[in-house]
Amino acid sequence: MSRSGERPILREQSTLRSRRALVAGSVGNLIEWYEFGVYGYFATIIAARFFTPEGGSEAEALVRTYASFALAFFFRPVGAALFGRLGDRIGRRPVLILVIALMTVATTLIGALPTYATVGALAPWLLTFLRVLQGLSAGGEFGGAVSVMTEFAPPGRRGLYGAWQSFTVALGLLGGAGAAALLATLLTQEQLGDWGWRVPFLLTLPLGLAALWLRLRLDETPAFKQEREVESPPVRAVVGAIALGAGRIMGWAAAGYTFLVVLPSYLQSTLDATFQQALIATVLANLGFAVTILPAGLLSDRFGRRPVMLTGALLVTVLAVPLLNLLQDGGTSNPVKGAAVFGAGAVVGLMAGPGPAMLAELFPTNVRYTGLGLAYALSNAVFSGCAGLIITKTVERTGNVDVPGYYAAATCALSVLALMKTPPKEPKTPPKEPSRKAS
Q: Which of 166, 246, 344, 347 could form a disulfide with 352 if both were Cys (CB 3.0 to 4.6 A apart)?
């Protein structure tokens, strides 16, 4: 066969590998965020089943539930460092297989845990231990998944391919919200509290097995094969890039969790919404989030990562508190409230779409898994994992129901400053792409 005849076949094989990497890289992230969403949506029920000893208050139990939530996030940087180092040394593929197996086992076991009524004080400790395992595996998930998706991306499409990581966040949260809403509709409140909350966690087992099968068929990335022996950059440069990356996405992390995960418990505990009303609001917010992610990634391939992310961060800074005031106003119609929460999710999507590619481009190949994983995990540990705890406790102590809006606005304002800052020396990236301005 002539060389010219081989080229279409090679292009077809390359396209197939890119698409396979896209699916295998994103599916684990979907499961991770499905589970984290389910935990947030069922926070009030989990609080009653695991963190309410006899005589304890509901508010105290909810704070303890979010403390366990935050603890899992603080183990994500540990997982990012541990699995990231392995991924940069032995390859993306074997580590991604390991982390999806760990996440699947830990999440499934949560659905089978005995409650406080059965084993007493052991129950919250068992739950917290499994949350720690989830935190470790989630820390190793992001860096590997984004490395695989962006390193396999065709020229000029890293923004779009990286955006699929964020898009699967939306799909995972929507899947969790949909499962919770369906169960809340089909079951009585007693059935939901007794055993219904377990179902979404147990569903992780078949989902995880499917993800494991996809990752077993995944190829190692060409970039890793080519540059695994290249000398690593100075530690100071890597640490600086991690700090800059974490600052650039802190608004995405904080506003995302405020509007997409913490919102149901906030609406129930602060604004007296029903469980069904809170879930509907969350589904609308996540739909808005999902709608803008891929277009934002595509726009970032054309105009650059920072301009698109800056637009989202500035919009949240200006609109977060007014949005919350709309939800609090009893005279606001339901369609307007629905449009408000949809819009809140949409502006977060403007940051989430270009975010993964922006982080990937801050680091050279041989430290990319570790570097971008740590930047993401540290930002999420502080600004996402603590969101529920900070908001719930601050509202409880101050009585100020605008706290979620101030939290989202303040963190996005800080992200604006980080996005305006350009690294003093751009680290080495994969071969330059056409039609994309500097990130």
A: 166
Rounded to an integer, what distance in angstroms lies between the CA atom of residue 14 and that of residue 260? 36
Pick from 264, 79, 286: nearest CA to 169:
286
CA dist 72 and 133 (Å) reads 8
- Tell me the whole-structure pTM to 2 decimals: 0.81
Report residue 384: phi and psi, to 5°: -100, -50
- Sequence-distant (6+) residues with CB within 8 A of 34 are 171, 172, 173, 175, 176, 200, 204, 207
At residue 203, φ and ψ (nearest 5 deg) are: -65, -15
Query: Which is more confidently placed, 345 or 185?
Result: 345
Compare 117 and 97 and report the one with higher pLDDT: 97
d(CA 401, CA 120): 34
* List of long-range contacts for 58-61, beta carbons under 8 Å, 24+ apart: 59/269, 59/392, 59/396
Q: What is the DSSP letter of 220?
A: P
Are the CB atoms for 305 and 182 separated by under 8 Å? Answer: no
Residue 421 has pLDDT above 50, yes or no: yes
pLDDT band per the 50, 70, 90 thresholds, residue 353: very high
Alpha helix positions (H), 329-437: 334-352, 355-360, 365-383, 387-398, 403-420
Question: Which structure tokens are listed for 160?
Answer: 């779009």
DSSP 327: H
Closest CA to 137 of 170, 111, 107, 167: 107
Q: What are phi and psi of 161, to 5 degrees?
A: -65, -40
Phi, psi of 243 (to 5 degrees): -65, -45
The encoded tokens of residue 24 equal 């295998």
Rg of the chain in Å (alpha carbons): 21
Residue showing tokens 């390193």: 151
Which structure tokens are listed for 235?
């530690």
For the chain, the average pLDDT equals 84
How many Å apart are CA 409 and CA 254, to the nearest integer? 9
Q: Convert 214-242 to b/e letters by CB count within 10 Å (16 or more is b).
A: bbeebebbebbeebeeeeebeeebbebbb
Token digits of residue 247: 């600052």
> Considering only CA atoms, which of 258, 259, 250 is closest in space to residue 375?
250
